[in-house]
Amino acid sequence: MIFRRNLICSLGVTFLGANAYNIIKPAIAARPYKIEEENICNSEDFVINHEPINDVTEQQIAAVDEVVHMLNVGPTGSRFRYDPMLSEIEVGRKILWKATTKGHNVEFMVTPNNIKFKSKLHKSAGFTFTTPGIYTYKCTPHVSVGMIGVVVVGNDLSNMTEAFDNAAYYGQAKELIQDILGRF
Fold first, then answer.
1. Where are the alpha helices (H) located in 30-131, listed in sequence order?
2. DSSP summary character for residue 118
3. What SS3 class is residue 151?
4. pLDDT tens readout for residues 145-177
5. What's the rounded Cα separation, in Å, for the pair 1 and 4?
6. Which CATH number fits domain 53-181: 2.60.40.10, 1.10.3230.20, 2.40.10.350, 2.60.40.420?
7. Which of 52, 148, 164, 181 is most buried, by CB atoms within 10 Å?
8. Which of 155, 154, 82 is nearest to 119 (CA)?
9. How far are the Cα atoms of 1, 15, 55 from residue 4, in angstroms, in the given order?
């Protein structure tokens, strides 16, 4: 009886000790340390996040009317951008969003007739615009940092109010969408 009690007690202490270590382990690993600029610039994350994607052929690119690149760093040095952010096309034309770097997709936010479209992460995607109007779109994981874009189809601005004042815009996306649409 004493042996069994000691065994159960020992197992309980071992179990509690192992769980306590698993709880404390992240706190020990997260000790503050000095981050230097060289460490940030040379980190492996920088290389992984900027890994190029080649998932479309030259023939696929030639078959579209416009190519929008999904970038980690935009042409002006801003982070997480579509290039270009504004596309003006005619009805029946096709846009290809080229996954230039990993981590991005395209998801429509405001469209005429509530057209739905959402591409997969890390994949290029194309869409043929058959309905005139304003289409706003986002990168699902990066909308708050301003990775948004606009397509104006057929020079039709009939849904401008909805596109300008949509509650789905937040963070930097709200400022950028108003800047883009303010041009019209």
1. 37-41, 44-49, 58-62
2. B
3. strand
4. 999 999 999 999 999 999 998 888 888 999 999
5. 5
6. 2.60.40.420
7. 148
8. 82
9. 5, 16, 63
